[in-house]
Amino acid sequence: MPYSNYPSGFPNGLTVRGVPITQSHPGKVFWVNNSTVLADGGIGGSDGNPGTYQKPFRTIDYAIGRCVSGRGDIIMVMPGHAETITAAGTITLDVNGVAIVGLGTGAARPTLTYTTANTAALSWTGDYCTMKNFNFVGNFLSIAAAILNNGGSDWTVENCDFKDTSAILGFLSCVTTTVSTNSDNGWFVGNTRSSDATTTPGTAIKVLNTTNRLTIKDNVFWHSVAENNAAIILDHAALVVDELLMENNTCYSINTGQTTSGFLVKTSATTGSGIIRNNLVRSQDPSSAIMITATAVQYGSFNNYHAGETTQLSGVLLPAAGDDAS
Length: 326
What we know:
Elements: E1 14-16, E2 19-21, E3 29-32, H1 60-66, E4 74-77, E5 82-85, E6 88-93, E7 99-102, E8 111-114, E9 121-124, E10 130-132, E11 135-138, E12 147-149, E13 156-158, E14 161-164, E15 175-177, E16 186-189, E17 192-195, E18 205-206, E19 211-212, E20 214-217, E21 220-223, E22 234-237, E23 241-242, E24 244-247, E25 250-252, E26 265-267, E27 274-277, E28 280-282, E29 299-302, E30 305-307, E31 316-317
Parallel strand pairs: 3-4, 4-7, 5-8, 6-9, 7-10, 8-11, 9-12, 10-13, 11-14, 12-15, 13-16, 14-17, 15-18, 16-20, 17-21, 18-22, 19-23, 20-24, 21-25, 22-26, 24-27, 25-28, 27-29, 28-30
Antiparallel strand pairs: 1-2, 30-31
């Protein structure tokens, strides 16, 4: 039996087995799938299709182009979908209010593989957009950024996996914001970053513009290559970040020296505001390590722990607890 669609809605509402169904978003839903696993009764993905569940589009960028700014459209990307990003803007998220949601778990999640150039990137210029549940795979030398935010505010990257391909092929960063753009209200939440490339351990988030309200929480960072005195999570150079919240992140590093820039944050800015709390770091630096660049006095630090011993000892509070007089 074919699926039914009622574009004019149900004026008196809809109840299924006594449970009212409520429309949870105002926009349209488009489907994307180029895998060989098709919807029941469906056909293969094509950008000539209408983008329905049974007749999906083939590419994410084409689906973005069918969205309407501010309508709250959703792009559902099927398990096993895979695309190759070969240049900056192969995929450009340039329509406001779009959510791109990948379906599936683990390797079955939609996968974006970066090749051909170190400038290959997903370009992000739309405001209040979301990207959720994707695999990002770096397969070229020193890829500058998986996601290049060229001016999208209220951005969310959630439950994604960023992974290098080999000892030399991988990402320099997961997200980089560009100069003189508005990337306020960023959310980087629940992601995993596995950095294996010797030439590109890199900092996960690089902020190159003044930014307000950046939240980085509940992420896991695995670094199997040492990059001493490079931050694992955030580098915002001399740029001011206000209302930073960095919490509940877990970092595994084999850095043996982290004395001039912090494991969590590297910056030369001395103004701004934020809270950094409940983060855990394991490294091979047994002493003198710092979590946050020493001059970054604008941040409040609470309950961050570092384990720098090679023996099985629990981590210690870093920086050390202060008192009301300090």
